[in-house]
């Protein structure tokens, strides 16, 4: 079964707009990771935030983590058509990642 | 520098058969994890191998088994295939000496398994 849920399940925006995806998880974690998956391909690691961090940036990506609410958010700024993909959060314990159900992002040109 | 490679890319089997999927990790990585991804769902953790031993297992029956070789490559075996085993099977590798959940994982493009 999935560890948590992502919200929304699907998101459609115009190129240049920002996209925000939310993730909730159920158990204590060492870290929270975000991955992208293009159709029919494997997952690509985007960013990892440790449980003692609250915010992290990488290029156009901004991730926040609230361990008291067991939630995280991923913000993609100035979106591009190439950002169209499924996005998954994954909660990390020492030996495994537990993935959420994903958000399908569509960026319209 | 080759990333994670998986073979075959596609496979069709019938119920009751057995299947073996293969994975070569990214160069320098010593830990391999396997995931099952049903259509429209997130990946579900099957198990993790480090130092040729299964170190962690998800909620999968004993029909799912694996192996890791001295060169860190890995196999996933599934016996007595069921229709519900149809999925994309993903292999991921990481460094970190068996603490795969604490590291970014590098994924292959998966094996698409269809059960008829």
Tell me what you see in this structure:
The complex is a heterodimer of chains A (109) and B (116). Chain A is an all-beta fold. Helix content of chain A is 0%, strand content 57%. Chain A is globular, with a radius of gyration of 13 Å. Chain B has 116 residues and is an all-beta fold. Chain B has strands at residues 5-7, 10-13, 19-24, 31-37, 44-50, 53-57, 64-68, 74-78, 87-94, 106-107, 111-115. In chain B, the strands form 2 sheets. In chain B, strands 2, 4, 5, 6, 9, 10 and 11 form a 7-stranded mixed beta sheet that branches. The mean pLDDT of chain B is 94. At the A-B interface, strand 4, strand 5 and strand 10 of A face strand 5 and strand 10 of B.
Count of DSSP strands of chain B: 11
Number of helices of chain B: 0
| Low-confidence spans of chain B | none
What is the CA-CA span between the terminal residues of chain B?
Answer: 37 Å
Series of secondary-structure elements of chain A, N-terminal to C-terminal: EEEEEEEEEEE
Q: Which pair of chains forms the biggest interface, and how many residues does each contribute?
A: A-B, 25 and 27 residues
Beta-sheet strand percentage of chain A? Answer: over 45%
**Topology order of chain B in helix (H) and strand (E) letters:** EEEEEEEEEEE
- Which residue ranges of chain A are poorly predicted, with pLDDT under 50 across at least 5 consecutive positions? none
- What overall form of chain A do the CA principal axes indicate? globular
Structural class of chain A: mainly beta
Counting DSSP E segments of at least 2 residues, the number of strands of chain A comes to 11
């Amino acid at each position: 079964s999935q560890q948590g849920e992502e919200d929304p399940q699907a998101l459609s925006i115009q190129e240049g707009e920002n996209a925000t995806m939310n993730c909730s998880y159920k158990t204590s974690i060492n870290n929270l990771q975000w991955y992208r998956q293009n159709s029919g391909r494997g997952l690509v690691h985007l960013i990892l935030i440790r449980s003692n961090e609250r915010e992290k940036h990488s290029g156009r990506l901004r991730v926040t983590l609230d361990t008291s609410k067991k939630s995280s958010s991923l913000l993609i700024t100035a979106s591009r058509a190439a950002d169209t993909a499924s996005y998954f959060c994954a909660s990390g314990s020492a030996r495994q990642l537990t993935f959420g159900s994903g958000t399908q992002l569509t960026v319209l040109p | 520098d080759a990333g994670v490679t998986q073979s075959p890319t596609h496979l069709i089997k019938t119920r009751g058969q057995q299947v073996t999927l293969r994975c070569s990790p990214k160069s320098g990585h010593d830990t391999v994890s396997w995931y099952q991804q049903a259509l429209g769902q997130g990946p579900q953790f099957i198990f993790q191998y480090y130092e040729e031993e299964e170190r962690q297992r998800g909620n999968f029956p004993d029909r799912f088994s694996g192996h890791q070789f001295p060169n860190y490559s890995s196999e996933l075996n599934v016996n007595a295939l069921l229709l519900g085993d149809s999925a994309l099977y993903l292999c991921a590798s990481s460094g970190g000496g068996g603490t795969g959940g604490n590291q970014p994982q590098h994924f292959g493009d998966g094996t698409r398994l269809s059960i008829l």
